[in-house]
Amino acid sequence: MAAVFLLPALVLLGALVVYPIVFSVYRSLFDASGDGFVGLGNYGAMFSDDAIRTALRNNVIWVVVAPTVSTALGLIFAVLTERIRWGTAFKLVVFMPMAISMLAAGIIFRLVYDQAPERGVANAVWVSVHDTFAEPAPFPGAKPRPNSGLRPSGGGAFTTKSAVRAGASGSSASSGPSGSSADLPLVAVRQSDVRDAKPAAVAQPQPGKITGTAWLDFTRGGGGRPKVIDGNEKALAGLTVEAVKGGAVVASATTAADGTYALPADKADGARLRLPAANFAEAYHGVDWLGPALVTPAIIGSYVWMWAGFAMVLIAAGLAAVPRELLEAARVDGAGEWQVFRRITVPLLAPVLVVVLVTLMINVLKIFDLVYIIAPGSSLRSANVLALQLFQSSFGTDVDEGLGSAIAVFLLLLVLPVMYVNLRRIRKERAR
Fold first, then answer.
1. What average pLDDT does the chain have?
2. Has residue 175 got a pLDDT over 60?
3. Domains in the chain, start-ordered, CATH in brackets?
4. CA angle in degrees (0–180, nearest 5) for 36-39-45
């Protein structure tokens, strides 16, 4: 009678579990065509392949980091929300990502981590914080007009070829970098940066000052003379101009709304004018979250977002079964909340924490969806994991089912120790 009732389950297990395992072990001993016996050759090739070694290293990172962080966050959320009135609502919000499929979560976080701040939420926040503390360059990408007397001086800065000299009246004399005055004509300025700019003005001589104008030396529609302020050519306001002697900055000024600036002649006389690189630095576009360096931590972050709620719910259920008398007795004896948490709550929750940790470890060993969807093609190799490599080796460009089967068997061997620990724990609990 027992055999009759067990037969359907045994048939399903045999067809869906035992047969695929046996066939994978058998197939891993043959070459890509399935005709040539290679023995353990596929296993040797697996450990000599750089892509598979990268996948193995990433799997180690996943197993160590993702379950630990998810369990720790679940424990914190479960304990902190135990006493607050809106704890149930908070738990519902944290658990809600579990209702989203891996595919949908991958698409969501592919957008969250988008490099462009106008599309990616992570970079939008990061750029906003950065720009709060760092002033953006006024004219990113601008450069001097050719033959204007300004030349690159390293690091994105531009310096005049000749020194400026003050005339008898104190204004700049004809030995300036751009003719009769220390004018600074620039080009390659984006129209959006000068859309509301005022027309450039010719700098007037000032006693005791060296003056000049910085402007966009370009007339829309053509016409105009190079290195001369023509018509309604736009002023470049907010540009920093430095006077440099012997490699040291002796004076500096910022161009006004009409593009003019003035430097003290007693300090700037005989100095070269420099436009520092900060005037032309490209706008900050945030962090390359999906670049080779950060793609794995970024994907792990999306996994934690999904599974921290799962850990929280299980730990909260275990926490509800903790005897309150022990906690209250400890508090009466003078124990602080941290001591109660560390010496009573965590030890009593240890069986639940082990269940959550082991479950998540088994889960991350098989991680595939998030990596495949979130990682762009340029970083896919750096984010590679064993389950993804199994898919690529078996069904990708190589189509080597022998190597893919070897990876599948190796992945099974990695899961078995975790399964063994889990089974021992279950048997111990039953024995109690």
1. 87
2. no
3. 26-127+289-431 (1.10.3720.10), 143-279 (no CATH)
4. 95
